[in-house]
TrEMBL record:
GO terms for molecular function: NAD+ binding; prephenate dehydrogenase (NAD+) activity; prephenate dehydrogenase (NADP+) activity. GO terms for biological process: tyrosine biosynthetic process. Belongs to the prephenate/arogenate dehydrogenase family. Residues 294-361 form the ACT domain. Pathway: Amino-acid biosynthesis; L-tyrosine biosynthesis; (4-hydroxyphenyl)pyruvate from prephenate (NAD(+) route): step 1/1. InterPro entries: 6-PGluconate_DH-like_C_sf, ACT_dom, NAD(P)-bd_dom_sf, PDH_C, PDH_N, Preph/Arog_dehydrog, Prephen_DH. This is Prephenate dehydrogenase. It catalyses: prephenate + NAD(+) = 3-(4-hydroxyphenyl)pyruvate + CO2 + NADH.
């Protein structure tokens, strides 16, 4: 693959353009909003000049409801040899593609499982897809060369290909992406009119849960409209669990000891189910989940402090598996939580303390 066109220069489209351009491909950019395409081009994602003839691959990065219409237009213009879309819902767009009479031998649906709470070309990153799953949804009439082109795209972007049925994909993303987005927004909505004193108590827990609540509502309406039934099914199950949890919490306030024990058992049961579910989330590079331990370091609010800390951790020979920064409200310090292998906790803690760092027990 040497040439590509990206149709739609939002976060995903621009990130794909950046990744391909970095690997030497000639990338052409199109967008209904010319300013967005020019912004993506200024970032290095490609050129807004049209291609002289058909490119190797067209990447359609538009909302799910527009995929069929845009694909039909691209094929009418003979824009590329092969086509894929990167919308986060697959079954609906696939049905529309068929209904519009598009050439389905040269088209394959796909979905990179990557994103950010920010949208638009300015949020794009060339490494957005690295190490992330990228779902491909071929059908019986997908040509082998079309599949190979999509696989090459995934490889060029540093992602991991996963082949799934379109409907299976939509049920899966309802569970692991779409419903969590709404749950995050629901939790964050409780903060809208909360007392300022309560807000100032916010710690890493509420920050973690509500991070994706900063996402663009308009974009998510487009996504959820295309997968509403599957998301509603997941949230209905969540609602049932919430109802049982509320009942258990009320029981903890009861006068009868038997009711309180039943309430405690109910809370413990749902939390243990959560432990089990969370433990199934894959670890780094899709490997089985690994238990890490946390080393919490007090970090001053001076330029270069974080880099200096990472440098000293590297000098000890410890690999940081994950990192989180918790800010201290009203104070010029924060806490960096370094996730490391259990066996590294002792040596790392001792080395950092000897180097003058304050490590919390």
């Amino acid at each position: 693959m040497r040439t590509a066109v990206v149709v739609g220069t939002g976060l995903i489209g621009t990130s794909a353009g950046l990744a391909l351009a970095e690997r030497g491909l000639t990338v052409h950019l199109e967008d209904a909003d010319p300013d967005a395409a020019r912004t993506a081009s200024s970032l290095g994602a490609g050129t807004t000049e049209p291609a002289d003839g058909p490119v190797d691959l067209a990447i359609i990065a538009v909302p799910p409801a527009l995929v069929g219409k845009v694909l039909a237009d691209c094929q009418r213009r003979n824009l590329a040899r092969w086509y894929t879309d990167v919308a986060s819902v697959k079954a609906g767009p696939r049905s529309e593609v068929v209904a519009l009479g598009c050439d389905t031998t040269r088209y394959i649906g796909s979905h990179p499982m990557a994103g950010r709470e920010r949208s638009g070309p300015l949020a794009a990153r060339a490494d957005l897809f690295e190490g992330r799953p990228w779902v491909l949804t071929p059908t019986a009439d997908t040509d082998t060369e079309t599949l190979n082109a999509a696989l090459e795209l995934v490889a060029l972007c540093g992602a991991m290909p996963i082949v799934m049925d379109a409907a299976e994909h939509d049920r899966a993303v309802a569970l692991v992406s779409h419903a969590p987005q709404l749950v995050s927004s629901l939790v964050a909505a409780r903060l809208e009119h909360a007392d300022e004193t309560a807000i100032r108590l916010s710690g890493q827990g509420v920050r973690d849960v509500t991070r994706i609540a900063a996402s663009n509502p308009g974009m998510w309406v487009d996504i959820l409209s295309a997968n509403a039934g599957a998301v509603a099914d997941v949230l209905q199950e969540v609602a049932a669990d919430l109802g049982e949890t509320v009942t258990a919490l009320r029981a903890l306030e009861a006068a009868q000891e038997g009711e309180r024990r039943a309430g405690a058992a109910g809370i413990e049961a749902v939390m243990r189910r959560g432990n089990t579910g969370q433990s199934r989330i894959p670890g780094k590079h899709g490997s089985p989940p690994t238990r890490y331990e946390t080393v919490a370091v007090v970090l001053g609010d001076q330029p270069g402090e974080l880099g200096r800390l990472f440098g000293e951790v590297g000098a000890v020979g410890v690999n940081i598996e994950d990192v989180a920064i918790e800010h201290s409200t009203g104070q010029q310090v924060g806490f960096v939580q370094l996730s490391v292998a259990p066996g590294a906790v002792g040596p790392l803690t001792a080395a950092l303390r000897s180097g003058g760092w304050s490590v919390r027990d």
